[in-house]
Structure formats: structure tokens, C-alpha cells
Amino acid sequence: MYNISGDTMIKHPIPKKTYKKAVNKSNMGMTLESDIEATNQYYLDMNIAVIYKKPTPIQVVNVNYPKRSMAKITEAYYKTPSTTDFNGIYKGKYIDFDVKETNSKTSIPLSNIHPHQVEHLRSVEAHGGIAFLIVHWKYYDEHYYLPCSILLQYYDNVKKGGRKSIPYQTFKENAYLIPFSLNPRLDYLSVIRSLSLV
Amino acid sequence: MYNISGDTMIKHPIPKKTYKKAVNKSNMGMTLESDIEATNQYYLDMNIAVIYKKPTPIQVVNVNYPKRSMAKITEAYYKTPSTTDFNGIYKGKYIDFDVKETNSKTSIPLSNIHPHQVEHLRSVEAHGGIAFLIVHWKYYDEHYYLPCSILLQYYDNVKKGGRKSIPYQTFKENAYLIPFSLNPRLDYLSVIRSLSLV
Question: Residue A98 is part of which domain span?
């Protein structure tokens, strides 16, 4: 048992290697996500847009009631999300996106994006919303706004025998670099404005 | 410990009364919510709109790794949601709402709606989205679409000494009855169309 709050109560000690692996896995993308969350908070505070991260979907199996007023979940599992992580409204427009990051220097595998996330973004676009991915290239420390249309182009091409990843070169040429600053940290709405989507 | 999957593993037996109370509490609004979820599925299947329920926010405290590939949450708690439960896109418009139900014959207390939910709906409207509540009057078995503006009218009036609930009469006169049918079960988008909001 791994207590994230720091005070330990080890019942089933886990070999250090597994433990480390697990921690790394659960922290993957945390910096990017918190950068986006800080940006969204800025948008909210400045009354620019209302965009939130959806809670992580969890399947609750057991609930305990140590007090009448308190439900303590004692067994639960992470579920695969059915949609993307972020959505909201900007200048009357519906906004929907997910964030991904890669250590690669050359390409991001399409396997990083769940098929149902791709299909979700596709229908958002079909219904007139603004759908995209934010991709963090950790090696270059660059964040790109990748329009849904380019994602779909690569994704749909796999069935026709196309490559299973999107090259960095495509980002350089067809995606949009998101400016990184102190506040807002990742001003992705500036890309939407520059594309005249709102 | 209460195992919702049916197979029991009672570690801390709970007096029957508390147990029942807990179950009732956690099931509160489940029928209404599942009616809305079935409706949203219908909208999705028919390619009418893309509207989802957000996952319930849960604060994870302890995670256990029985297998390398599996994270088992062993301690977690329900958190108060910061926004409403449902949002999505319909004909290019951002849609945002919450569902409430009441057993009362006469009025629904404003305390049923969290202040941050009200403020969230207020900013959605301010940014050009469609914000509302769906209220199920169980006694009458009627479902109403209550525009955000009416909710705000009552909510903002409390500070000026106004009543702390919205009367049923207001629903009869100023809200919109949502048709109930087999499929879609609660066609709330028909109200939005009839109000020419899209």
C-alpha cells in the first residue's frame, strides 16, 4: 500500500523497482497537465474562458461508512476515459482537447491516443466545435497545438497502410507552437484566435 | 464494507439502518441520471449532439499495486464537484446543465444547488453557452427545463431577503416541461430548439 500523503501504513510491501515504476507511471504528464490547469485557472480568473479538466473516471467497487456522514471508498479502479480530458467554452464556441507528451525526438506514436478519443474529437468537429491536441515534445521542450484535422489525416491513413505515428516535422510545418510564459503558462487560446476560429 | 457487486466480504458490519440509509443516499437521483444518460446516448447514436456526464470527482489517498499492470485504489473519498455534471455540444453551441430532483409538492430549496454550480452556470451564460437545470418533481413525475436566468433571479434575490426556494408554480409558469418517452427518454434538446436557442 502506497500512501501518497506521506504517512505510511505498509501492509503489502512492494519491491522498490515496481514501486518506482508505478509512481513514474502515475506522474506521467503531470507537469503538462498542471501547466494546462494553471492556464485554465488564469482564463477563468480573467473571465476569458470557462475550461475545465474532467475528473479521472474511477470505478468504485467497495464503499465503507466509518461515520454516518462519511463515505470511504475502500476498493476502486481507474477506468479508461470515454472522452478527452478538457472541455469548455470560449467566446461562445465549444472547445475540446486532450494533452499528450512524448520523449521522442522524431515522432509521436498514434497509439498514445485512444481510438475513442480520436472519434470523440472527430464528432466534436462535425458538430461545430473546436477540437485539437496539445502535444509536449519534451526533448525540445516545445508545446504544439495540433488541429484535429491533421490528427485525423494520419489516423485514417493507418487503415490504408500509412505510418503509425505523426512525425515531428509535421508539427514544425503544420501545427502551431504554443507560447510558454509565466501567466498564462500555455496560452493555447492565442492559437485559436490567430486561426480566426472564434 | 459494502460490496456493490453483490459478493460480500463483510469486514466491518454496519447496522442495517445505517446501511439502508447509505444505500438510499448513494442512489439518490440515479433514475433521473440514468434517464439523462440514456437520452445522451440516443443523441450520440443519432449524431444529434455530443453530451456527456462528467465522472464523479474522487480524491485518491491510497493506491496499491497487486500486479505490475494494475493499480488498486484502497482509500479514496468523494469530492464536491467544482462544476455541473453534464456538458457538451449541440449544433455548434456549448451546452451545460445539472440535474436535480425533489420530493416536495410545493418548492425546491436553493440549498439543493451548490453555490459554485450556480456561479459556473452564470459564467457559461456570460460566455454565450446554454445553461440550465433539469428538475424532476417526483410527486408529479414531471421533468422541467429551468433556464439559468430564472435560477439566477431566485438565487440572487436571497441576498436581498428573498425566499430560499423556487416554487412549483414558477416551474408551471416559467419553466418548460420536458417530454418523457421511450427513446429519447427526456428530450431536453427539443426545449432548446423550441426556444430558438440554436
Answer: 16-55+81-194
Candidate from A122-126, A172-176, B44-48, B79-83 with smallest mean pLDDT: B79-83
Query: Would you say residue A61 lies in a domain?
Result: no
B30 interfacial to chain A (CB closer than 8 Å): no
Tell me the per-residue pLDDT of B103-139, one tens digit each, with 9 for 90 and over. 999 999 999 999 999 999 999 999 999 999 999 999 9
Instruction: Give the domain CATH number at B42.
Output: 3.40.1350.10
* Mean pLDDT to the nearest integer, A59-70: 90
| % of chain B beyond a pLDDT of 90 | 78
Has residue A109 been placed in a domain? yes
For residue B181, pLDDT beyond 50: yes
Contact indicator for A195, A176 with CB cutoff of 8 Å:
yes
Give burial (CB, 10 Å; 0-12/13-18/19+) of B1: middle
Tell whether A20 lies on the interface with B, counting CB pairs under 8 A: no
B70: pLDDT confidence band, cut at 50, 70 and 90? confident
> How, if at all, do strands B165-167 and B107-109 pair?
antiparallel
Q: B 132-191 residues with CB below 8 A of A?
A: none
Interface contact flag, A4 B62, Cβ < 8 Å:
yes
CA distance A25 to A2: 14
Residue A11 has φ and ψ, to the nearest 5°, of -105, -40
Count of the separate structural domains present in chain B: 1
Q: Is residue A97 part of a domain?
A: yes
| Cβ contact A101:A135 at 8 Å | yes
CB atoms B128 and A88 under 8 Å: no
Residues of A in contact with B83 (CB under 8 A): 52
- Structural Rg of chain A based on CA atoms: 19
Could you tell me the pLDDT band of residue A82, with boundaries at 50, 70 and 90? confident
